[in-house]
Amino acid sequence: MTLNNIKPGCECLIKEVNLTGSTGQRLMDMGFMPGTKVKVVRNAPLVDPIDLLLRGFHVSIRHHEAEGMEVEEL
Amino acid sequence: MNEITVAVAGQPNSGKSTIFNMLTGSRQHVANYPGVTVEKKTGRYRYQGNTVTLVDLPGTYSLTSYSKEERIARDYLLHEKPTVVLDIVDAANLERNLYLTFQLEEMGIPLVIALNMMDVAKDRGFAIDAHKLSELLGAAVIPTVGKKHKGGNEIKEAILRACQNAHSQTPYGETREAGSVSPGISRKKDSFRIDYGAELESVLMPLEERLLNDPKFSFRYPARWLAVKLMENDNEARRLVKEIEENYHGDGYSNPR
Phi/psi at A38 (nearest 5 deg)? Predict the structure, then answer.
């Protein structure tokens, strides 16, 4: 399952980050790493973005970026 | 000691500019980093007979070479040789902010850490042990609330002390090649080191050793930092190494292999 499929209000654990280049680097710099717990706060279903909470801060990312993160629902 | 240059680093929205303004008053001015449209803000203050120049670096989450801001911040630290780096850390986002701190530590430049927005952190229920953090990081950690002008004098004092420590610990002494050595680099040899685990260290340590034993590199860049970047396959780091290899015409140096 990828992060974009997680429903708002639900939490998941990142298993794998399949993003490369500057986007992957930036997200990893911000703490998107395997083992990190992420809560989906809000999700604009047809358009971007997805609002996430991880490590105590909010960040919004695009659906296609969320799609690059393999997660396990908690 | 009279002239001190301090680079102000930190992640976006950690309060760099607030702290910068708190320290310098209204005496800062804005310029551009050469070749790019990122503003370079410098300012000065005097403290106990020293003139301290602050250079506000672009806010970055890390020091890779993917974005222009990151390259500017990193090149400044590598080539312009600030005496001290003042790292502004958002206390309410400590975990994320420490990632940049670790990268700064790895570059081996004397560090002073401002633990900013302590009021916000407290409101969120965080209790942060600044002393313990300072011990673990091997750098002064000063709790601040930039918005309320709290912690300014403590930062100034810590910067001065970091300079004095740096000067007394410079290992190069008379033997260093004039003009080719970054005075800020390789000073803090054993004060801070991230252990990346057996698997990575088996690659990292031999690489670091090679860089340390090669005067082309050891006099220019912190070996540990360069080894980590090369392991990451960082483009800029690879370019630096290539450039040095191609341009080096040292006398008396020969490769043993």
Answer: -125, 135
Distance CA B188, CA B209 (A): 16
Question: How close, in Å, is residue B65 to chain A by CA atoms?
Answer: 9
Q: How far apart are CA A13 and CA A63, in angstroms?
A: 17
Distances (CA, A) of B10 to A17, A25, B41, B85: 25, 17, 14, 10
Residues of chain A with Cβ-Cβ distance to B61 below 8 Å are 26, 29-30
What CATH number does domain A3-73 carry, 3.40.50.300, 2.60.40.2550, 2.30.30.110, 2.30.30.90? 2.30.30.90
Domain coordinates of chain A in residue numbers? 3-73
- Residues from chain B that touch A25, judged by Cβ atoms under 8 A, are 62, 64, 66
| Chain B neighbors of A22, CB-CB under 8 A | 66-67
Interval B5-15: pLDDT, tens = 999 999 998 98
What is this model's ipTM?
0.87
Whose tokens are 């930036």? That residue is: A26
Which tens digits make up the pLDDT trace of B136-165? Answer: 999 999 999 988 999 999 999 999 999 988
| Neighbouring residues of B131: CB distance < 8 A, sequence distance ≥ 6 | B141
What pLDDT was estimated at residue B51? 96
CATH classification (class only), B3-169: alpha beta
Q: Which of B188, B250, B171 is nearest to B215 (CA)?
A: B250
Mean pLDDT rounded to a whole number for chain B? 84
Mutation for testing the B interface, residue in A20, A22, A23, A25 having most B CBs under 10 Å: A25
| Distance (Å, whole) CA B237 – CA B213 | 18
CA distance B76 to B65: 13
Element (H, E) at B86: strand B84-90
Domain-by-domain residue ranges, chain B? 3-169, 195-257
Phi and psi (nearest 5°) for B132?
-65, -45
